[in-house]
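Forwarding the complex inputs:
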Amino acid sequence: MSHTKLENKLAVNKYDVDRDVHITINEDMCKGCSLHPCLYICPAQCYKQASDGHIIFSYEGCLECGSCRIACDYGAINWSLPRGGFGICYEYG
Amino acid sequence: MEQKFDAIVVGAGLAGLACAYKLANSGLNVLVMERGKFAGAKNTWGGAFYGPVLYDLISPLWKEMPIERYLVRHVLSFVSEGQCFSVSSESEPSNSPPHNGFSLLRSRFDKWFAQKVSQAGAIIACGIEASDLIWDGPDIRGVKSGNETFHADVVVACDGVHSILARKAGLRGELKPIEVKLGVKEIISLPSETIEQRFNLSGDEGISMQFVGSCTKGLPGGAFIYTNKQSLSVGIVVQLNALVENKSSANDLLEDFKQSWPVKKLIRGGELKEYSAHLIPVSGINMMPHLCTNGLLVAGDAAALVVGTGLILEGGNFAAASGIAAAQTVLKCKEKGDFSVKSLSYYQKLLEDSFVLQDLKTFKKAPHFLENQRIYNEYPDLLCSLMQKVLTNDGQPRTTTWRLAREQMKGKVSLPQVAKDIVQAMSSI
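Prediction (whole assembly, two chains):
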């Protein structure tokens, strides 16, 4: 097996993606942070930095581990779990 | 009039299901609330269950339990770039349950277990998240899910490492990065014959492999492989604060681990079936919240009941045992009709009398010991290079192992330092 691209890894997972976003970023608080641990701590790389420096969260691939919430020192992540029945749906676990 | 339950169990993991199974079998009216689409949908772990707890609870169902493989061999490998030094422990397979350890795939197992809990009479409500508690003065009287309310005499919070309910009840604060490890895992499918050949197993036999050293690039944590019937569980577990401080990605570490030569040949030709991630509470008793308040008990990962010493890595049995103790407590309190914190504190006593809190106390110093960077850097390097030197014949006269060891240690770690670490290990793990 060669290195598997993350998007291919997430593509084998089963998700029931909700229309509602379950995690949002408080931009004012986020601005104070220069390190942005969210960018590398998220095992699904749900956090990306836009060209203007803003952090963008795309919730579709979220594995609901909660690492981002604990790693963010600035409390900039309004973290919650997806609504009941939605989100990641492990078949092996 | 809205239905009132004897007990609401939140979370259909090992703690919640063990609790609900015991309560339902004792005739109580139990509701299990699970946020996943089905029981097990949100559950993932490394791989294995140890000890007799489940057997004692569900022995009549043992034969139909979806066990993957019985562990007959445990291998601990110290890995350094291009080198590996392993210690293997094997025992003659016993054909009688409960077996000392077995691998399980949690989504499948929990789904099966939930069916049995349902057959025992509990209501399993999936796709419903418990978002808040219902309070009556100082007492918890049930659970809210959005605008819906569910009333009960007592709530058992088995809602996992982030336990929203334990936080809402004021039993614990926010988790800190040093208190948790992030685990990422792949399920890689292979034919069972291939697994048996590659790992030298027969029939239902299985193996657990733990790796320490360069697999985490020296960060506190390790890697693992567990054999399932027709797949391997391959993963990395790393201290969250170390990932943050080193700007490392657990997924990158996992990809490198899969490419490393001891692992590459084991997973060759396999097909990726699932990629999962989960936080593990690893600070043991040092991070344990209060276990009960008026009308609420906390069990499993929600109560941080996990023991990790590097040699012992257990959480499932602690979860199930705490779930059972919570059920025993609910049954006793129901007899008295008293669900006050004083009455529910019987739970704490049960856990103190059992392996659950005794083990957590015994290994109280393990989390701190495991922060020692030398375990993941110098020692794996030393062990690997020393054995390499001892076993290499380059045609030159040989020297004693001890002298080689001293040479290898030069400039890396001092003898007093090693002695100090060994003494610390002796009292921690």
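Chain B touches chain A through 59 residues (CB under 8 Å).
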